[in-house]
C-alpha cells in the first residue's frame, strides 16, 4: 500500500542525547536524582521513542528482565515538581525496556520503547529515572536518548 498525500504519518523530531550517568543502579533500585540531564519537550510532542544504552559487569539477567522508565515532570507550575519516583510513588512511570537475557556482559546494549508524554504545560521539563528489575546491577555510564514524535499530513 502506498501512503498518499495528506495521509497521517509520524513525524520525528531531533534525537536528544541526555548524556551518560555517573552512578550504577542496583537490581530493584531507582536511579538517583539528577544523575541524568533533564529534558525539555520543546516540541510539545505527545509521544516519544526512547533508547536506553546500558551494560552490566557480572551475573545473569533474570527471566523476563526489564527496566522501568519514569519521566518526572519538573517546574510544572514554575516552582513545583512531581514527586521523585519510588515504590510509594509510581505516577511518573511511562514505559518499560525489555532486556534480552542473551546479552554479553561487557558490551553496551540498547533497549528501546515508545512512550506517551503527559505534558502539563508547553515546553514541559522532565527528569528521567530508571528502576532496575533485571537481576543484575546496571553499571555507571548508562544513558537515555529521546526522540519526540508527532503526526501530520504526508507530503
Summed up, what is this model?
The chain has 155 residues and is mostly beta strands. It contains no helices and 9 strands.
Let me know the largest β-sheet. 5 strands, antiparallel
The count of β-strands is 9
Radius of gyration: 17 Å
The CATH topology corresponds to Jelly Rolls
Text of the CATH class: Mainly Beta
Helix content: under 10%
Helix-strand pattern, N to C?
Answer: EEEEEEEEE
**CATH-level-2 architecture:** Sandwich
- DSSP summary: helix tally: 0
Q: Based on Cα principal axes, name the global outline.
A: globular
Structural summary, described in words:
- This protein has 155 residues and is mostly beta strands.
- The protein has a single domain (8-144, 146-150), classed as Jelly Rolls.
- The protein has strands at 8-12, 16-20, 39-40, 47-54, 66-74, 93-98, 109-116, 125-133, 143-153.
- The strands form 2 sheets. Strands 1, 2, 4, 7 and 9 form a 5-stranded antiparallel β-sheet that branches. It has a 4-stranded antiparallel β-sheet with strand order 3-8-5-6, with no helix packed on it.
- It is globular and about 50 Å long.
Sum up the structure in keywords.
155 residues; mainly beta; five-stranded antiparallel beta sheet; four-stranded antiparallel beta sheet; 0% helix; 41% strand
Amino acid at each position: 500500500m502506498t501512503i498518499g498525500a495528506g495521509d497521517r504519518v509520524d513525524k520525528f523530531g531531533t534525537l536528544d542525547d541526555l548524556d551518560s550517568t555517573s552512578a550504577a543502579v542496583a537490581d530493584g533500585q531507582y536511579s538517583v536524582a539528577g544523575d541524568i540531564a533533564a529534558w525539555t519537550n520543546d516540541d510539545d510532542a505527545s509521544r516519544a521513542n526512547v533508547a536506553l544504552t546500558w551494560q552490566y559487569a557480572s551475573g545473569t539477567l533474570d527471566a523476563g528482565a526489564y527496566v522501568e522508565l519514569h519521566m518526572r515532570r519538573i517546574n510544572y507550575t514554575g516552582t513545583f515538581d512531581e514527586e521523585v519516583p519510588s515504590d510509594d510513588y509510581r505516577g511518573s512511570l511511562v514505559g518499560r525496556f525489555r532486556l534480552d537475557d542473551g546479552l554479553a556482559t561487557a558490551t553496551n546494549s540498547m533497549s528501546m520503547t515508545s512512550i506517551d508524554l503527559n505534558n502539563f504545560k508547553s515546553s514541559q521539563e522532565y527528569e528521567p529515572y530508571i528502576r532496575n528489575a533485571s537481576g543484575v546491577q546496571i553499571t555507571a555510564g548508562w544513558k537515555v536518548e529521546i526522540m519526540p514524535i508527532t503526526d501530520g499530513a504526508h507530503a
